[in-house]
Amino acid sequence: LTQEVTYSTLLHATRRDLHGAVAAQLEKVAGDGRAGIESVLASHYERAEQWPEAATHLQLAANRAASTGAVQSALDLFERCAQAAERVGDQGKVIEVAQQRASIGMVTGHLDVAKVEWERLRRIANANDDRRLQVVAQAQLGILAQFSHDEDAADTATAAAVEMAREVVDADASAAALGARFWFSLVSGRLDQIDGLRRRYLVDARDASDSARTTWRINEPMISRWTGDFQEAIRLTDSGVDSITTGGHTVALAKQAWIRTMALTEASRFEEALELGVRVSDDCERLGETMWRARLLNTIGWLFHEVLDDSQAAQWNERSLAIALDTPVPDTEIRCNAHLNLVENLIRLGDLDEAAIHLRNVSDVVEHPARQDWFMHWRYSQRFHAVAGDLALANGDNAQATQHAAACRRQALDTGSRKYLARADRLHAGALLGAGDLGAAWHRINSSVNEALALGGPGQLWRSYLLAADVAAAAHETESEDDLRAKAEGILTATASTLSEPRRSCLLNSPVYLAIARPRG
Q1: What values do phi and psi take at 278, rounded to 5?
Q2: Global pTM?
Q3: For 463-499, b where at least 16 C-beta lie within 10 A, e where not — what string?
Q4: Please, what is the angle between helix 71-87 and helix 51-67, to 10°?
Q5: Cα 378 from Cα 237, distance rounded (Å)
Q6: Sign of dihedral through CA atoms 38, 40, 45, 46?
Q7: What are the helix (H) ranges across 205-331?
Q8: What's the mean pLDDT in 95-120?
Q9: Cβ atoms < 10 Å from Cβ of 248
C-alpha cells in the first residue's frame, strides 16, 4: 500500500523515466534469456511510452501466450501491440498483428474477433488503395462466413473476392480469392464449379507464394478422398504435420492432418492414422482449437469402428459430440457425423433402440435443414442414407432399406463418390437378400464388389465379400460361400497383422471376425 501511495505521488514524466530505466535494466540482466519476461518488459515499455519497444515485446508475449493455449491473454496482448504500433504509425506492424489476432480467433472459435480484425484490415486496405489486401480481406471474410454457417454471406463474399481478383494482377490475391471460392464450392455442394475454378487457379495463381496457396492446397485432397482416390489424397497431404502451433496456418495444418487421417484410415493404414490423429488432436486441445479437433475425434472414433472395436469407437465419438454441442458456433456437420458414427457403433453392439435415437437427431436435419445446416449437408445426408439403411436392415425393414439405398446411390452418382456407390449397392443387395430375391441380390452385390475393388478400400471390400458370401449361402452355393468368406477373412487378417496391441487382439477376437473365421465346408 505504501508503495502504491508513493508511486501515485510521482510526476508522470518521472514514472515514465523510471519504467524505461527498469525495462533497460531487465533487458541488460536477462541478455538473450528473455523468454518468459516479455510481458513484464512490454508493460514497462508501455508505461515508459517507448512504443516501438512496447510493440515488439507485446508481440513476443502474445505469441508465447498463444503457444501455451492462453487464448484470451494472447488476444489482449495482440490488441495492445496494435495500439502501440498505431501510436508510432507502424502500419506494417498493425497489419501483421491484425492477421495474427484474426488467426487465433479463427483457430479457437472466436469468430467475432477474427471478423473484427479482417474488417479492420479491409478498412486499412481501402484507405491505402491496397488492392491486394482488399482481395485477401474479402476472401477471408468469405471463409469466416462459411465457419459461421452463413451461406448467403459466404457466397456473396467469395464471389466478390474472385471478381475483385480479376482486376488485380497479383498471384497471391488470386490464390486467396480462388481458394476461398473453391472451399465454398466444396462445402456447399456446388461441385460443378470446381473444374472452372481449378483452370483459372492454374493460370492466375501459378506464381503465388506457398503461404497464399494454403487454402487451395489444403482443400484439394478432399476432392480426391470424396471421389475414392485415397492414395492421391495421401500423396497430396504428404508434406508432414510435425506439430500444430499458433504461428502460421494453424487451421490449415490441423485440417491437413484431419484429411490425411481419414485417407490413411480408408487405405487401412490404421496405426499411422491413429498416431497422427491423436497427436494433432492433442495439439489442438492445448491451443484451444475446436473445429478440427472435434473432426479428428470423430475420425478416430470411425477408425476404431473400422478395426472392430466399437466400444472404444463410441468413447471417441461421444467426446467429439460433446465438443460440437459446446462450441461458440454450433457445427451441424460435426454433430451429425458423430451421431452417425454412434449409430454404426450401436448397430454392431446390438443396441438398436439407442441407435434409433441418435439417428433421429440426424434425420431431422437431413429432411428439414435449417438455414445454418447447409455446410456439408450434401455429404452427411449421403452418409445418413447409408447408415439409416443399415439400421433398417438390422431391424428387418427391407423396404425402408431399399429406399435409403436408392437415395444414397442417387447422391453418390451425382457427386462421383465410389465409396457410397459401393455402400448403396451393398445395402440394396442386403435388402433384396432379406426379401428373398436372390437373383437380384447377386447382381447388386457383384456391382458392390466391383466398385469396392476399383475403389481400393479394404474396408468396403471385406464387407461386400461378406454379404456376397451370405447371398451364396442362401442359394446353397457352399463352395462360393467358402471362397467369398475366405476373402473377407483374409482382408481382416491382413489388417490385424498391421495393428499394434491391444488393437490386433481386439480385432481377432471380435464377434465379427470370429463369425467370419468359423469352420467352413
Answers
A1: -70, -45
A2: 0.86
A3: bbbbbbbbbbbeeebeebbbebbbbbbebbbebbeeb
A4: 160
A5: 24
A6: positive
A7: 214-226, 230-236, 250-266, 270-287, 291-306, 310-326
A8: 89
A9: 13
